[in-house]
Amino acid sequence: MSEFVPDNSAIRFEIPVSDYERARNFYGAVLKERCDRPNTAAIFVAKDQSAVAAATAYPGTPAVAPGMGITIHLPVPDLEEGLARVKANGGSIVSPIITLASGRFAYCVDPDGNSFGLFN
């Protein structure tokens, strides 16, 4: 039996939101308008459409307390500018900038309390 090795370590992620348009506007502003709306989902645009995709695809509420649970890290070209956009659009920054060998990131929380990181 051959071992299945996927091209990406994640295929898709979805973010539960209580107000779809607010979330679409928030992530669009933070990620510099990279949220397309092909139907009822806001898809985060990637250079290669076979890359990992995201969607604020369904109305709901986070399953855990604000800032808890799984954390998705989203790329931005300039971390400090991205963090400023988080604050300016109703989110919050919950950590200092953390430096790794592969880049820098900070933990944030969106207006629904979903944890996410900005990475560059």
Describe this structure in words.
It contains 2 helices and 9 strands; from the N terminus they run βαββββαββββ. It is α/β, with parallel strands linked by helices. Helices cover 18% and strands 26% of the residues. The chain has one domain: 2,3-Dihydroxybiphenyl 1,2-Dioxygenase, domain 1, CATH 3.10.180.10. The longest helix has 11 residues, at 20-30. It starts with 11 loop residues before the first strand and ends with a strand. The model has no long low-confidence stretch (mean pLDDT 79). It has helices spanning 20-30, 79-88, and strands spanning 12-14, 35-36, 43-44, 53-55, 72-75, 92-93, 98-100, 103-109, 115-119. The strands form 3 sheets. Strands 5, 6, 7, 8 and 9 form a 5-stranded mixed beta sheet that branches. A two-stranded parallel ribbon has the order 1-4.
Summarize it:
The chain has 120 residues and is α/β, with parallel strands linked by helices. Helix content is 18%, strand content 26%.
